[in-house]
Specification:
By secondary structure, this protein is of the alpha+beta class. The radius of gyration is 33 Å and the shape is elongated. The protein has helices at residues 58-67, 182-190, 210-221, 241-249, 269-279, 305-313, 333-347; strands spanning 19-20, 22-25, 37-39, 49-55, 73-85, 88-90, 98-103, 116-121, 124-128, 130-135, 138-145, 150-155. The protein is built from seven helices and twelve strands. The longest helix is centred in the last third of the chain and has 15 residues, at 333-347. The strands form two sheets. Strands 2, 4, 5, 6, 8, 9 and 12 form a seven-stranded mixed sheet that branches. A five-stranded antiparallel sheet has the order 1-3-7-11-10, with no helix packed on it. The chain has two domains: 19-155, Immunoglobulin-like, CATH 2.60.40; 182-347, no CATH class.
Length: 351
């Protein structure tokens, strides 16, 4: 492209960028050395002459192949460069660059528009700016080399066209795409965490009950058979009976302490946080002062302090309006969907 300073495409008879001969081409794909052009400012390399070699180095090739995609077309080569001063070989200064023009290998001619020149650096492939040109019916690719080590011409494999998945058709007439909880309800429904409350309703504002949360966690864990719970208010045939028995056995729930669990009671936000926290193995929050920023932190029950500190710090439970946690408020079904989604994605249990 154009730029400041003298252009090597000026009409003067002498090009202001000397062309360096490539002294050695041992790189299989560029065995036709006459076609390779290297342009550089010889003087700034602080030597009388500059030598460039194109070779194949087994180790760096291995590195390039390991970093490229499995189905990419990869043509690795190495560039080494040194200048001679008083007969000694000298490495050029940092930042010294040479412009290299390579013939496009015949195997890549059909894909020439997709060729990338890459450089292997620190465990990743860096794509360099390159330019494709045609001269006398032959195609060339030109790029600037600053580093001298593993390079490759790569044509990335075509990503198989993904069949367009139809947007999720929400089965609930009471959940709209514009609702804040839309994606959370979608996630909960698609992952089998929550079902609707009727044929086509989700009832997002309805409070979630305690039996339902036990059931969600139970299903998540694989629904193992467990001896019945010891709670007097959990009937053996109820939909949540196995889940509550499992949650009691695992120490996820303890009930109210009077032989009662209250499966049909609305679950509060702090109770929900505590059950999820117990399910996660009671991880410690690293910031014990995290709850102090909530104006209603004093309302948090003693048993729920650690759970809410963890849930708030990890972003599993966020404040309402930013500064209120509402620990004693009921967790609506929409909030439950969002909190479960946050938990599964944050903890890596996301399936």
């Amino acid at each position: 492209g154009s730029g400041g300073g003298g252009s090597s495409h000026s009409s003067s008879t002498v090009s202001d960028t000397p062309v360096i001969t490539v002294s050695e081409v041992k790189s299989e794909i560029f065995s036709n050395a006459e076609d390779i052009k290297v342009e550089a400012d010889v003087t700034s390399a602080f030597g009388e002459s500059v030598t460039v070699k194109l070779t194949d180095d087994a180790d760096s090739q291995k590195e390039i192949f390991s970093l490229a995609g499995a189905n990419d077309k990869v043509y690795p080569f190495d560039i080494s460069l040194y200048s001679k001063k008083n007969g000694d070989k000298v490495q050029p200064k940092d930042g010294y660059s040479v412009k290299i023009t390579l013939p496009v290998p015949k195997e890549l001619l059909d894909d020439r528009e997709k060729i990338k020149v890459v450089y292997g650096k620190d465990g990743s492939l860096e794509t360099l700016k390159s330019e494709l040109t045609e001269k006398d019916g032959k195609w060339y690719i030109t790029f600037e080399a600053v580093h001298f080590s593993p390079y490759a011409l790569i044509v990335s494999a075509e990503e198989p066209a993904q069949p367009e998945t139809a947007p999720w058709a929400i089965p609930f007439s009471d959940v709209k795409a514009s609702d804040w909880y839309y994606s959370a309800v979608q996630y909960a429904a698609q992952n089998g965490l929550m079902k609707g409350t009727g044929t086509n309703t989700f009832s997002p504002e309805l409070a979630t009950n305690r039996g339902m949360i036990a059931t969600i966690l139970y299903n998540l864990d694989g629904s193992e058979e467990t001896a019945p719970s010891t709670f007097n208010d959990v009937k053996p045939g109820a939909y949540y009976a196995n889940a509550v028995a499992w949650a009691q056995k695992k120490g996820i729930i303890a009930g109210y302490g009077n032989g009662m669990f209250g499966p049909d009671d609305s679950i509060t936000r702090e109770q929900l946080a505590t059950m999820i926290w117990n399910y996660a193995g009671s991880p410690a929050a690293t910031d014990s002062q995290g709850l102090a920023s909530f104006m209603d932190a004093v309302e948090i029950s003693a048993y729920a302090q650690n759970a809410l500190a963890w849930a708030s710090q990890t972003g599993i439970i966020n404040g309402k309006g930013g500064s209120l946690l509402d620990p004693q408020g009921p967790a609506t079904r929409a909030e439950t969907a969002q909190i479960m989604k946050n938990f599964l994605q944050e903890s890596g249990l996301d399936k």
